[in-house]
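Pilot study result, target chain (381 residues):
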Amino acid sequence: MRSVSVVGANMIKFGKNEKTLEELGQEAVVGLIKGMNLDREKIEVAYGGNVFGGHLPTQRVLKELGMTGIPIFNVENACASGATAYHQAYQAIATGVYDVALVIGVEKLTALGGGALPIPPNEIEGNHGIVMPGVYAMRAKRYMHDFNVTAEDFGLVSVKNRANGALNPYAQFQKPITIEEVMESRLIADPFTMLQCSANSGDGAAAVLVCATERAKEFSDISIKTEASVITSGLFKGGYRDLTWAEITYRAVHTAYEQSGLKPSDINIVELHDAFTIAEILYYESMGFCEHGKGVDFIKDGKSYIDGQVAVNPSGGLISRGHPLGATGVAQVAEMFWQLTGQAGKRQVKNPRYGLTHVTGGGISGVDNGACGVHIFSAVS
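Predicted structure:
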C-alpha cells in the first residue's frame, strides 16, 4: 500500500443558497483549481459524495467545467457519503490504480423544501416516528438517567461549537450563543431544543485533491498524509441496544487507531458528527478520550475546546458549520488540511500533529448507524 496525501482543499460557505447543485459543486472545484494553479488534465479520476441530488451528480458538476471522459464515481452512503468518497479515492491511490484523484462532496438540502428527510416505506422504526431527533433524544434521556447529568449539560456542546463557528468564514451559523439561549430555544424532541440540533436546511460543497505522497511536491509545497481510512457499517441487533454507547463509532475509530499505530492521546484535533449535542458527548467516550459516562465532565473541564486536550470541532461542527449531507465528510477533510498546515485562521489549533475526522450515516431499524467513516491525518514536517 502506498502513502496517500491531501495536497489541496476548498469549500464554499454552507447555508441556504440560490445556486443549483451543479453550481455549488462547480464553485468548490473551480476554487480548488484556481487556488492551486492546478493543471486539471493531471486529475485521473473523480469521486463524488451526494445523497439527494439524483442521478450522476458528479458528472453534472464536472461537465460544465470541461472535465469529462475520466472515470467518475458517485457515492451515496447517507451522511457518510463524502467520507466514503474520500475512502474510495484513498484505496485507489494506495493500491496504485490511480495517482491523482479529485474528491467532491455536494448537497442542496433546500431543494427538499424542509421538514424531515424522506423515510423509505419499509423502514419500520422510522415510520413509527423513531426518526433521528427521537433516536438521539432517547439516547440523551437514558444518559441523563444513567449518569446523573442534565439537559443543560448537553447544551454546553452547542455553546462551544457556535463559538468555534463564529471564527469560521465557511460556517452556516457565525454568531456565538449563550447557554440561556440554547435552553430557551424551541423544543424539538425532549430534552433537545432547536439549538441543540444541527440544521437540515443547508446547502454546501467541498473539494480536495488527493495524490500518492511520492507526487505531493508536484502539486503543492504543503500537504497532509492519510494515516488511516476506515468505513464500516452498523451491526444489526433485534433486541436490547445500549443507547449510551456509540458502538459503530467505537469499532471504526479503534480500527483506525490500529491501522495508524496511534492511540487516543496522540490525537490533537477531531472533526466529528455532532448531529445532536448528545452525539458529541458519546463520541468523546467511544473515541477513547475519556471513560464511559464522563463525557460531560470532559467538556466542563474544557478538554474539548480549541485550546484543550483535544480540539473537537474547531470548525463549529455540524451544529455551526452546517450539515449538507454529502458535503460534510469532504468538508471535514478540508478543515483538517487547513488545520494541519496552519491555515485555519482565527480557529487555528496550536501546533497540531494528528487529526481525526468522523461521520456516521443513516438510521436503519435495529442498527446503531448505517455507516461510519473515520480518517486520521498527520502534519508533514
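One observation from the pilot: The chain has two domains: 4-112+202-222, 124-197+228-379. A full batch analysis is planned for the follow-on phase.
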